[in-house]
Amino acid sequence: MKTLDPVWAGVAELSRAFETRALSPVDVVDALLARIARRDPALHAYIAIYESEARLAAEAADRAIKSGHRVGPLHGVPIGLKDLIDLRGRVTTGGSKVWINRVSPTTATLAERLIGAGMIVLGKTHTVEFAMGSFGTNTHLGTPWNPWDLTVHRTPGGSSSGSAVAVAAGLAPVAIGTDTGGSVRLPAAWCGVVGLKVTAGRISTYGVLPLSFTLDTPGPIARSVEDAALIFRVLSGPDPRDLPTLAWAPADPLPTLRRGVAGLRLATLPDDERVGVDAEVLAAYDASVKKLASLGAEIVRVALPNRFADYAAGTGRIIGAEGYRFVGHLVDDMSLPVDPHIRPRIQVGRGMSARDYLMALAEREEHRRAFVTALANVDALLTPTAQTAAIPIAKVDQSGTAAFFTRAGNYLGLCGLALPNGFTVDGLPTSLQILCHAGQEATALRIGWAYEQASEWKERRPPDAAT
pLDDT grade, residue 466 (50/70/90)? Predict the structure, then answer.
């Protein structure tokens, strides 16, 4: 029997190991904290480590499990939280030097649910300032290092940069990110892990620093589809402090996770949307589609009613307007140390009239109706998650966005899963995006699980895995 490595074990593996007493939460937290101490000075995934508290929580979980007081399958499993998620009495900076001493007034609902399930918070992970960026860069607080290239500083993906780096590099088995235009899926894609973007309202945003109240969605970044499903299950469900969640019942994707893809109709990327996508990314995408077909899925071609560029532009307008509502006073104050790349993105909303904003929302509804109609008989739309693999930070065009394929998920009210689907010749991860209709997270996870089981990508580790 293979010995389980406490650093590289995923959520499901840790859950089983704790149940059988093959590992204890103390073993795992000690191993992770030791690796964080060794590797994080270079990788910069965390902005804060809760070392003493995590050790105390691990000891308490160990005693509880030993005494028959295990509260559930996640008891004792460590997790990282994006630095947008409030924990009362702790600093939450939102990636901003302006908020470097901002003490959280409350605890986010999602943090309450994770801690209530017995999970152990290792610390807070770095984010792009105000969560407004797809490349993962942060001028003042530092940009996490993509662990797949130890010589060139490459984009970790944003805005949940630290969460993805932590999971990919063995600094946490799972972490929470947020996704407004791709901020869970892009970091997952470029760091070679799994990211679940949920339907808006599925997971409470109460206590999560906002960017766009229309589009914000928290979600897990994990090493496997099953791990993402386990975290989604504990986080989903109504929260009276976040009214949109009242429209959704709690969801459990586990019963259907292993049903396979036979009989599902999966739509492929239209030919005209392949332009601008890197050749290696396209090759990995085409191989993924072929693999899903071999597993019994019906692959279909559909005509999308609009271009991905239209969805991306519409998303940008809404984020600009709603983001300006929250932090406009900060980006307009030139005396404050706001990231110079972030300032103009938020200031898109400064000159937007009420009419323009309402027109953008109305156009979004038109686009959503047209999309739902065009894909009514399709279970999922398959795309690459990003057009390229991670690029050198030095080559980033901060006036653009990497969220070309991902923004459609937020704009159209969809859910989506990003998961590894290959590597470039340079050893950089590529990623498949599975977009499903609103509320169909279980379907996205089911498709992802089937693909994952038929490939070996989740077994690959970054080049520093043994250190």
Answer: low
pLDDT of 465 over the 90 cut: no
Residue 228, C-beta contacts closer than 8 angstroms, at least 6 positions apart: 174, 194, 195, 196, 219, 220, 221, 222, 417, 445
Give the separation between CA 20 and CA 23, rounded to whole angstroms. 8
Q: Which of 134, 160, 183, 224 is catalytic?
A: 183
| Identified catalytic residue from 24, 134, 159, 161 | 159
15 counts as catalytic: no
Alpha-carbon separation of residue 293 from 242, 284, 328, 431 (angstroms): 40, 14, 48, 17
Q: DSSP secondary structure string, 175-240?
A: EEEEESSSTTHHHHHHHTSEEEEPPTTSB--TTB--S-TTT-EEEEEESSHHHHHHHHHHHBS-BT
What CA–CA distance (Å, rounded) separates 337 from 341?
12
Residue 383's SS3 state is: strand
* Count of alpha carbons within 13 angstroms of residue 373, beta-carbon side: 8
Q: Which residues contact 84 (CB under 8 A, 6 or more apart)?
A: 92, 94, 95, 127, 131, 178, 208, 209
| R_g over Cα of the chain | 20
Model pLDDT, residue 356: 97
Look at phi and psi of residue 422 and say left if phi exceeds 0, alpha if psi is from -120 to 50, else beta. Answer: left
Q: Which two structure tokens, joined as six digits, stand for 229?
A: 């499903």
**Catalytic residue list contains 2:** no
Instruction: Name the packing angle between helices 308-331 and 354-374 (round to 10°).
Output: 150
Q: Is the dihedral of CA 452, 177, 264, 421 positive or negative?
A: negative
Please tell me whether residue 89 adopts helix, strand or coil conformation. coil
Percent helix, strand, coil in the chain, to 5, is 40, 15, 45
- Do 202 and 245 contact (CB within 8 A), yes or no? yes
> What's CA 389's distance to the chain center, in Å?
17
Identify the active-site residue in 15, 24, 82, 212: 82
288-343: per-residue pLDDT in tens?
Answer: 999 999 999 999 999 999 999 999 999 999 999 999 999 999 999 999 999 999 99
The reply to whether 395 belongs to the active site is no
8 A C-beta contact, residue 291 and residue 422: no
Q: 303 Cβ partners below 8 Å, 6+ apart? A: 270, 374
Express each pLDDT in 96-147 by its tens digit.
999 999 999 999 999 999 999 999 999 999 999 999 999 999 999 999 999 9
CATH architecture of 11-305+370-459: Alpha-Beta Complex (3.90)
Q: Does the predicted model carry a pTM greater than 0.70? A: yes
